[in-house]
Design goal:
Largest sheet: 4 strands, mixed
Low-confidence stretches: 1-16, 26-45
Mean pLDDT: 78
Number of strands: 4
CATH superfamily of one domain: OmpA-like domain
Structural class: alpha+beta
Radius of gyration: 35 Å
Distance between the termini: 82 Å
Order of helices and strands: HHEHEHEEHH
Strand content: 5-15%
CATH topology of one domain: 60s Ribosomal Protein L30, Chain: A
Shape: extended
CATH class of one domain: Alpha Beta
Helix content: 25-40%
Strand order of the largest sheet: 1-4-2-3
């Protein structure tokens, strides 16, 4: 059985009715505590991590580029050849198996598009694409006078939702939390520049160690020699003196 503690040398306060002032003060403190707790819960319930607010999705996406077709000329310009070459490099880097050259059908430029499609194939092959990976396809042109040729392949890509609209006002944010679009541009840029979208999910395997360097270090270690890099040939830096210094 626990014995209640008592303070030595102190008088116990008389047990009586509390004054209205004390009751009002206690009530005010209680209300203030409730208000503070409510604000903390509001702040804590809003995700402050921009990666959760603007996630990057890894999904299979069709990459395309349109090649304009002119009825008066059936030759690829140097600029368009450069565009096809750049798209071919993206295809090779993606690891996709098939790249399609899709030509319009039933349009006025159908014949010119067929001639250009074979030139596009030649550019793709010259850029390193395996001819067996090139697939010719046709799409029905719906009332278009000069529909383009579309080159496409399907590959894993990193995508994000568009930024905006600005639904909140930073100037009137009383909870000291991030605004809605915070970090959206960063996530957009990361998804656009990442070379391999799968790197955002899990890391790649480590490359093999340099066997030659390892053997050299072990040999010097056994001989008791220094196996660190030699920096003695590097010139020491000097601080330029100011005028009158």
């Amino acid at each position: 059985m626990n014995t209640p503690r008592t303070s030595v040398g102190r008088r116990q306060a008389p047990r009586g009715r509390l004054s209205p002032a004390i009751v009002a003060g206690s009530l005010a403190l209680a209300l203030a505590a409730c208000k503070h707790t409510s604000e903390v819960e509001v702040v804590g319930s809003v995700p402050s991590d921009y990666r959760l607010n603007h996630p990057i999705a890894i999904e299979d996406k069709v990459q395309t580029v349109d090649i304009p077709v002119s009825m008066n000329g059936a030759r690829l310009t140097e600029g368009v050849r450069g565009n096809v070459n750049g798209f071919a490099q993206r295809f090779l880097a993606s690891g996709a198996a098939v790249i399609a050259i899709v030509t319009p059908s039933g349009s006025a430029d159908e014949t010119a598009a067929i001639w250009l499609s074979y030139q596009i194939k030649d550019v793709l092959v010259a850029s390193g694409v395996d001819p067996k990976a090139i697939d010719f396809r046709v799409y029905r042109a719906r009332g278009e006078r000069t529909p383009p040729i579309r080159i496409a392949f399907s590959a894993v890509a990193a995508t994000t939702a568009g930024c905006g609209p600005w639904t909140d006002q930073v100037a009137t944010n009383k909870n000291n939390v991030n605004y809605g679009n915070f970090g959206c541009a960063t996530q957009q840029n990361l998804a656009a520049i990442v070379a391999n979208p799968l790197d955002l999910i899990y890391p790649r395997g480590m490359t093999p160690a340099d066997a030659t360097r390892r053997a050299t270090v072990l040999e010097k270690y056994e001989k008791g020699e220094s196996y660190q890099s030699d920096y003695s040939r590097e010139t020491g830096g000097t601080v330029a003196k100011g005028v009158g210094g």
